[in-house]
Amino acid sequence: MSALTPEDLVAMPLFAELAEEQRSLLLDRHRETSHQVDQVIVMEQDWGESLFLIREGLAKVRTYTADGDEVIMSLLGQGDVFGEMAALDGASRSADVVALTPLHLIKLHSVPFVALLGQQASFALALARLEASRLRDLNQRFALQSADATTRLLDALAYLARKSSRDQNPQAEIPLLAQREIALLAGLARETASRTLSKLRNRGTVIETNGQFRIVDLQPLIQRGLLPG
After folding, report:
1. Domain covering 144-223: architecture
2. What is the pTM of this model?
3. Cβ density class 33-62: b for 16+ within 10 Å, e for less
4. Which of 23, 72, 150, 172 pairs as cysteine with 165 (C-beta 3.0–4.6 A)?
5. Which CATH class is domain 8-138?
6. In which residue ranges of the chain is CATH 2.60.120.10 found?
7. Please, where in the chain does CATH 1.10.10.10 lie?
8. Which strands form 96-99's sheet, in the order they lie side by side?
9. pLDDT tens digits along 71-115
10. How far is 227 from 196, CA to CA, in rounded Å?
11. Residue 133 CA to chain centroid, in angstroms?
């Protein structure tokens, strides 16, 4: 993969309205790193002044309950940043970030990032929109905690598809993941998730090709209020 340039940032909504000079400032002395599946990129309670931009791949933001159960807070895909909260408030990391697929990351210095937020209102607004979309996804997933298994799994699959595509497409191919990860995202036992996924495949709602899933029929999601009609 070629080195990231200021022009490449234009394609990412967060940076689209920045001038070339400002994009160049963000990339000053940046580092590009690659990571394998299950690698922990940042750890909860760690300290760090850098933030990260996902150039390629999918990651999860996780924490643990008092009983030691893993909880997936959100997913991160191409064009997403993470580590920005610690950069803004100087506190420790609030969660782990773990690679779900091979990741290609851009490590940015926090000082120019924070300075631009104070200088460029459109940049601050773009970051606020990004945070709002994450909060909206989290709210929907918590609202579905008492829903039936089919609804929760469909929501998880659509979420995975959207975060795996550039255009937030709920029908995009989902990367090959362990079914444990899909079950965790849906808040289901692995056996329940496996049975429910088999039902969705038999109904023709979901297809599997070479281990990758894709939602081909959106009507069940629309009927459950997971997507607008």
Report:
1. Orthogonal Bundle (1.10)
2. 0.92
3. eebebeeebbeeeeeeeebbbbbebbbbbb
4. 172
5. mainly beta
6. 8-138
7. 144-223
8. 40-42, 96-99, 59-64, 70-76
9. 999 999 999 999 888 888 777 788 899 999 999 999 999 999 999
10. 19
11. 11
